[in-house]
């Protein structure tokens, strides 16, 4: 699979851009690369921002979605290796994307890892364990309040998006962390203040998943706090990325 199938860029890299920092963003379950357009716009002056487009959605809707998180990470690593520009690489993942970014980091050794809205890998996402059918899946999406309610009420749209959603939720529900090498880079853990998925006791264990520094940042909002707090999150990332994340 060509790297172009997996990676989307929305804004021109900063100038001079001989070896810009690459920030690769990983979307949530049911999400797409386009979720990160606002963040890309905010960071266009300091980084080349790329977003991962998982198969089974939008322009890749004809491709089968991947319902195994480790397999998804392996495929993304294969796409990222030839796409790297030789400069430093940073990874940012939200919700399911945080787990994918973490597993990619175990394989690619980035300079920085940002994980958002997600319990530590060794904890698992307990909230998804009991979701066994479409009704439970859709109820969970409504609780998280990150998907257009009109979209969830449209039978024709649901027919298009449900296959990818089923695969993503299955990937999260069945993910089992395996002991092994951990990322050596600094990790920043970002959460929403009202996100029931990420209370302190389930995110604190992210410290176990890096041999580098681990810092925690809380923002006002729920599971999809990033939608309202893009500017503040971009400021945090920009301060790191402007240093070249060596």
UniProtKB/TrEMBL annotation:
Top-level taxon: Bacteria
Signal peptide: none
Family: Belongs to the thioesterase family.
Ranges for domain Thioesterase TesA-like: 24-241
Protein name listed in UniProt: Thioesterase
Tagged with keyword Cytoplasm: no
SUPFAM superfamilies: alpha/beta-Hydrolases
Keyword terms: Hydrolase
């Amino acid at each position: 699979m060509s790297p172009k199938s997996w990676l989307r860029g929305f804004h021109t890299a900063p100038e001079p851009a001989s070896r810009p920092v690459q920030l690769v963003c990983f979307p949530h379950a049911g999400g797409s690369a386009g979720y990160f357009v606002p963040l890309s716009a905010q960071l266009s002056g300091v980084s080349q921002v790329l977003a991962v487009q998982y198969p089974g959605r939008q322009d890749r809707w004809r491709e089968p979605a991947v319902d195994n998180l480790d397999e998804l990470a392996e495929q993304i690593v294969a796409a990222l290796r030839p796409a790297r520009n030789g400069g430093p690489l940073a990874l940012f993942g939200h919700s399911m994307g945080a787990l994918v970014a973490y597993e990619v980091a175990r394989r690619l050794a980035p300079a920085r890892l940002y994980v958002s809205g997600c319990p530590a890998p060794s904890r698992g996402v307990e909230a998804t364990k009991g979701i066994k059918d479409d009704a439970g899946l859709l109820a969970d999406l409504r609780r998280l309040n990150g998907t257009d309610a009109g979209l969830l009420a449209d039978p024709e749209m649901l027919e298009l998006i449900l296959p990818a959603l089923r695969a993503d939720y299955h990937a999260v529900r069945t993910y089992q962390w395996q002991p092994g090498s951990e990322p050596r880079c600094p990790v920043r853990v970002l959460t929403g203040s009202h996100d029931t998925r990420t209370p302190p006791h389930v995110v604190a264990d992210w410290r176990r998943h890096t041999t580098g520094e681990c810092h925690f940042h809380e923002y006002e909002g729920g599971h999809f706090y990033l939608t309202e707090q893009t500017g503040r999150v971009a400021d945090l990332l920009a301060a790191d990325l402007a240093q070249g994340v060596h």
